[in-house]
Specification:
By secondary structure, the chain is of the alpha+beta class. Helices cover about 25% and strands about 35% of the residues. It has a single domain (about 1-150), classed as 2-Layer Sandwich (Alpha-D-Glucose-1,6-Bisphosphate, Chain A, domain 4), CATH 3.30.530. It has helices at about 10-20, 25, 125-150, and strands at about 1-5, 30-35, 55, 60, 65-70, 75-80, 85-95, 105-110. It has a 5-stranded antiparallel beta sheet. Strands 2-3-4 form a 3-stranded antiparallel beta sheet, with no helix packed on it. The protein starts with a strand and ends with a helix. This is SRPBCC domain-containing protein. It comes from Massariosphaeria phaeospora. It holds the Pfam family Polyketide_cyc2. InterPro entries: Polyketide_cyclase/dehydratase, START-like_dom_sf.
């Protein structure tokens, strides 16, 4: 699964909003309900590979391991139901090749679980899962661009 969206802000500002976990409920109430560090007092910016986080989704919570926290990517690996659903969930912040001083935000997951074939193209869950990823990305775009307008 992979979706992209253009955001009218530099990559570091998009990353700052994405890593501002406590404020997710202000701008996104679907798909990813919450993310928090473990322990909760640890700043998200200081997460390193191997750190555990808590990620809440509709009807479930997982404790994935951070696999990347760099200026260009934040990612975790998580699994559910005896690894039936597992994968590396990622958020990438790329300098836009389309719009100057903007970001191409890439949101996706490389699935590895034995039941994740159901998310593939042509399977019934593909469209609904893609819509969830795109919805989160649109909400992030709206939040970042709202903050940009407030600064000017």
């Amino acid at each position: 699964m992979r979706v992209e969206i253009e955001i009218a802000a530099p990559p570091e500002e998009v990353r700052a909003v994405l890593l501002d976990f406590p404020n997710y409920p202000e701008w996104h109430t679907n798909f990813i309900k919450s993310v928090s560090t473990i322990p909760p007092t640890k700043p998200a910016i200081s997460l390193i590979e191997g750190d555990k986080i808590c990620a809440g989704f509709t009807g479930m919570t997982i404790e994935p391991l951070v696999t990347s926290n760099t200026p260009t990517e934040f990612a975790w690996f998580g699994s559910l139901a005896l690894d039936a659903f597992s994968g590396r969930h990622y958020f990438r912040f790329e300098e836009s090749q389309i719009t100057p001083a903007s970001t191409t935000f890439v949101h996706g997951e490389d699935y590895t679980g034995w039941m994740t074939f159901m998310f593939g193209k042509g399977w019934p869950l593909h469209t609904s899962v893609r819509d969830m990823y795109m919805g989160f990305s649109r909400d992030l775009k709206a939040r970042v661009e709202e903050l940009q307008r407030a600064q000017t």
